[in-house]
Write a structure and sequence with these properties.
It is a single chain. The chain is of the alpha+beta class. 40% of the residues lie in helices and 22% in strands. The chain has three helices and four strands; from the N terminus they run ααββββα. It has a four-stranded antiparallel beta sheet with strand order 1-2-3-4. A hairpin with a 7-residue loop joins strand 3 and strand 4.
């Protein structure tokens, strides 16, 4: 094998090892619960809000009170372990999964920009 090929393989392996890893649904839930517990709001994660696109790199969970009662609220968690986990949350309003939802559009754009930034600046992560 030539040295160029060996160096190429090593560089590709290094680049892949430095890239962000996806966050599991369980880890996303745990991050959401820990965030809510830290705020002392008496809320926890109820369920995931369906219909996110396959390429969306975040999860949105509905909230409920710790006694199980349904309450308005949501929390958006990044699906990239290089980014801070909590992207947005509200304890007063539900998240509407409709294409014209400006917050959904903003979250998609935000995660795209932040992911690109951390790919270009891995030391900043």
């Amino acid at each position: 094998m030539s040295y160029k090929l060996i160096w190429s393989i090593l560089l590709i392996t290094l680049a892949l090892s430095l890239s962000a890893a996806p966050v599991s649904e369980m880890d996303s839930r745990l991050a959401a619960v820990n965030f809510l517990n830290g705020r002392g709001v008496g809320l926890t994660v109820a369920s995931g809000i369906a219909n996110l696109q396959r390429n969306d790199n975040f999860r949105i969970f509905a909230l409920e009170s710790t006694d199980g009662a349904t309450v308005p609220g949501f929390i958006a968690i990044s699906g990239d372990d290089n980014l801070p986990p909590v992207m947005a949350y509200s304890i007063h309003r539900n998240f509407e999964m409709v294409p014209e939802n400006k917050l959904l559009q903003m979250l998609r754009y935000d995660i795209e920009l932040r992911s690109a930034y951390y790919e270009e600046n891995p030391d900043a992560a």
